[in-house]
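Task 17 of the worksheet. Students: predict the tertiary structure of the chain below and write it out as structure tokens. Keep your answer in the requested format; marks are given for formatting as well as content.
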Amino acid sequence: MATTTDVRTEEFMLDYLDNAVVGLHWVDGNAMTLWANKADYEPLGYTEDEYVGHSITEFHADPDVIADILQRLLSGESLYNYKARLLCKDGSTMSVLIASSGLFDDEGNFVHTRCFTIKDQASRSSIGTWADRPGQVPSPAPGSATSSTPTEAGLLRIGLRDPTARETFSPQRPGHHGGYGS
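Model answer:
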């Protein structure tokens, strides 16, 4: 059993990332997938070798959507609940929500994305209605709260507020942690 001090080791952190139930991946400035966990590629029917080392554009059904995602991330924007359709190995598509930000070095150069991919279940819920085209902002449920403060934004980020709202964060620059309202 892991102790409190064990959970901070590199081995435990790598295990946490590799075995997370949420898809995680890094993509460089040339759209090449540098790393991904199993939850990112296995639901699409791919193996690690078929996914990592390939352009992320190969796995997006809508070229204009992935171009928009990459352009926003390369310019320093962060995305939350960005709707996209991914291509499965069997030819079908999977609707997903993307939360991603870019990692920049001390000189402000883009290093890679920090992307979370979650299967879109909201389109089947009564919470709100997604726009038909991927990449569009969903319609919030009547009477749902919108984020107006960093605290509300933090609650949104961890899923305790309106899960149909797509948030855009401030750019992250060297020496600046970014976030809502910064």
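Marker's comment: The chain has one domain: 21-169. The helical segments are 10-18, 38-41, 48-51, 63-74, 150-157.
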